[in-house]
Design a protein that fits this description.
Layout: H1 2-19, H2 21-48, H3 55-68, H4 87-90, H5 92-115, H6 118-139
Helix pairs in contact: 2-3, 3-5, 5-6
The chain binds heme C (HEC).
Length: about 140
């Protein structure tokens, strides 16, 4: 009996974590803020021509976060504090397409930054910024 209870608790714990929409909202917003932090850092570097040697680090950090971004919108996570629109879950195909664009743009930016070639970096950061806006316009509240 005791063993059965231990097994039950072990099974329930991860399910409980998945069902906690508030935690999922918090985590999603933290991931987005980190993505935003890297984006602002890169903008500052490129606009002011400072700390150029850090550009690739931010681009790689953002690209790494882009890999987990598709996993931070689970069902049941549109809680009170969430600024996600219902369309995230009502239009999964459109949302996935916007996400794919972003993931590809983030990878391109990381490669461009690694090359230090400004003729690649300019268009890459513009495409990346466009992919944020492309999703926010349709899936995020103001
Ligand atoms: C595929 C959709 C999608 C893409 C791509 C995307 N975002 Fe978001 N972002 C969202 C949604 C939806 C929210 C609202 C999250 C919530 O509150 O539930 C959000 C929230 C944010 C926030 C606010 C976080 C907070 O709570 O303070 C920032 C900052 C942000 N995104 C930055 C970015 C940047 C910068 C990019 C591009 C480099 C980006 N996002 C790409 C969908 C996206």
């Amino acid at each position: 009996m005791k063993e059965r209870i231990v097994l039950l608790v072990a099974l329930l714990a991860p399910m409980g974590a998945l069902a906690d929409g508030k935690v999922e909202t918090e985590y999603r917003q933290a991931v987005m803020k980190s993505i935003g932090g890297h984006m602002v850092s890169m903008g500052t570097i490129l606009k002011n021509r400072v700390h150029f040697e850090d550009l690739a680090l931010h681009a790689r950090g953002l690209a790494a976060l882009a890999e987990v971004a598709p996993n931070v919108f689970p069902e049941g996570s549109n809680t009170e504090k969430s600024k996600s629109l219902e369309s995230v879950w009502k239009d999964p195909e459109g949302f996935a397409a916007a996400m794919d664009k972003f993931v590809v743009a983030a990878r391109d930016m990381a490669e461009a930054a690694d090359s230090s070639d400004m003729t690649r970096i300019g268009p890459a950061i513009q495409a990346l910024g466009g992919s944020c806006k492309g999703c926010h316009d349709d899936y995020k509240a103001e």
